[in-house]
Amino acid sequence: MPMTFGWTDIEDIVLALDEAHPEVDALSIRFTELRKMIEALKDFEPEPGQNVNEQILEAVQAGWHEERQEQAALDRSDPDPDEDEDEDPGYAPNQPFR
User: Fold this and answer.
1) Class for domain 10-78, per CATH?
2) Dihedral (CA of 59, 20, 76, 27) sign
3) What confidence tier does 97 reach under pLDDT thresholds 50, 70, 90?
4) Local structure of 27: helix, strand or coil
């Protein structure tokens, strides 16, 4: 991440929000509150004259939600799928063929 970031640095904002507010559901935040959260981020420094609009806040909200979804998918996945290969016997018929 760069030293500072502004309104157009959506990915940097998303990562900083995710780190600063792991307990927050991105889709439950109103834009007014989201804007305050972004402006309070440690490395957030918008360029002079750089404005925020609804489109930017929507992009941040969607990116933050997507980041959480990706993290949840990684948390659910097995880090080494071949590790437990021998524990699963696989298919076995109920009664052997005679």
Assistant:
1) mainly alpha
2) negative
3) low
4) helix
In which residue are the tokens 């972004």 written? 38
Q: How far apart are CA 38 and CA 74, in angstroms?
A: 26
- Residue 72's contacts (CB-CB under 8 Å, 6 or more residues apart) are none
Q: pLDDT tens digit string along 78-95?
A: 665 555 555 656 666 566
Prediction pTM value: 0.74
In angstroms, rounded to a whole number, what is the distance separating the alpha carbons of residues 73 and 44?
Answer: 28
Identity of the residue numbered 79: P
4 within 8 A of 45, measured Cβ to Cβ: yes
Measured CA angle at 29 (ends 23, 30), to 5 deg = 160
